[in-house]
């Protein structure tokens, strides 16, 4: 179960906040680092996806993953590194890594600008804006690495009072999926069963309750919540 960044912001109807950008950046960079540990040096281009608002997946655990499924109808050119658009050959894992750094940077700029009126500037702190600009450099050798991004995120966490990165990702997931701990709440199941009872019988149950307001209120809530 997961939520794309695009889905979360569509539900919100507004942009990512600065701490959310830091959080998604940190969790995404950690996922990329782990991914590239598994990629064969003999085939550095084998990863095969472009990070975009539709392929960046937020997980209920607070982590981030990526996919290339169900995004074929999206125009991804704005999120694609210039060297890929120009069909340049990529000779090293470092070059491939920076393709995804570029896409991630553009994706987070998209998130920061989502539903913001054109007359209003994007509100980003200098440190975060500097990191994102470094991620979106057109020239590959000038682009920052995953390690640089992770170091910047670590410095931000040390020097601020922000919550753990995973907690911001969890909150974004809940915008779409709700509170996952209550996907199958017992009161809902009880109320579903009780809707099968005749309404007269349900009313008789309420009448026969002891005259304790809190008890009566709770049962009314359970019976008619659905």
From TrEMBL:
Q: Which GO terms describe its cellular component?
A: cytoplasm; nucleus
Q: Which domain of life is it from?
A: Eukaryota
InterPro entries linked to this entry: KIND_dom (IPR011019), NonRcpt_TyrProt_Phosphatase (IPR052074), PAZ_dom_sf (IPR036085)
Annotated KIND domain ranges read 3-190
Q: Which Gene3D superfamilies match?
A: Transferase(Phosphotransferase) domain 1
Report the GO molecular function annotations.
phosphatidylinositol 3-kinase regulatory subunit binding; protein tyrosine phosphatase activity
Q: Which UniProt keywords apply?
A: Repeat
Name the PANTHER family for this protein: TYROSINE-PROTEIN PHOSPHATASE NON-RECEPTOR TYPE 13
Record protein name field:
KIND domain-containing protein
Native source organism of the sequence: Mandrillus leucophaeus (Drill)
What lineage does UniProt assign to this protein's organism? Eukaryota, Metazoa, Chordata, Craniata, Vertebrata
């Amino acid at each position: 179960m997961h939520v794309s960044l695009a889905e979360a912001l569509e539900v919100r109807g507004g942009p990512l906040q600065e701490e959310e950008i830091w959080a998604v950046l940190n969790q995404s960079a950690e996922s990329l680092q782990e991914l590239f540990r598994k990629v064969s040096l003999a085939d550095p281009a084998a990863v095969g996806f472009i990070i975009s608002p539709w392929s960046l997946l937020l997980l209920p655990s607070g982590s981030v993953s990526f996919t290339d499924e169900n995004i074929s109808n999206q125009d991804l050119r704005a999120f694609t590194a210039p060297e890929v658009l120009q069909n340049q050959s990529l000779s090293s894992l470092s070059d491939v890594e920076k393709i995804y750094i570029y896409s991630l940077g553009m994706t987070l700029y998209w998130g920061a600008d989502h539903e913001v009126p054109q007359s209003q500037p994007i509100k980003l702190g200098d440190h975060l804006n500097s990191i994102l600009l470094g991620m979106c450099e057109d020239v590959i050798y000038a682009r920052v690495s995953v390690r640089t991004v992770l170091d910047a995120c670590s410095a931000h966490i040390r020097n601020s009072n922000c919550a753990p990165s995973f907690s911001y990702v969890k909150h974004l997931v809940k915008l779409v999926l709700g509170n996952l701990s209550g996907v199958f709440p017992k009161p809902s199941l009880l109320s579903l069963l009780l809707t099968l009872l005749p309404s007269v019988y349900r009313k008789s149950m309420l009448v026969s309750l002891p005259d304790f307001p809190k008890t009566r209120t709770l049962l009314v809530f359970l019976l008619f919540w659905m």
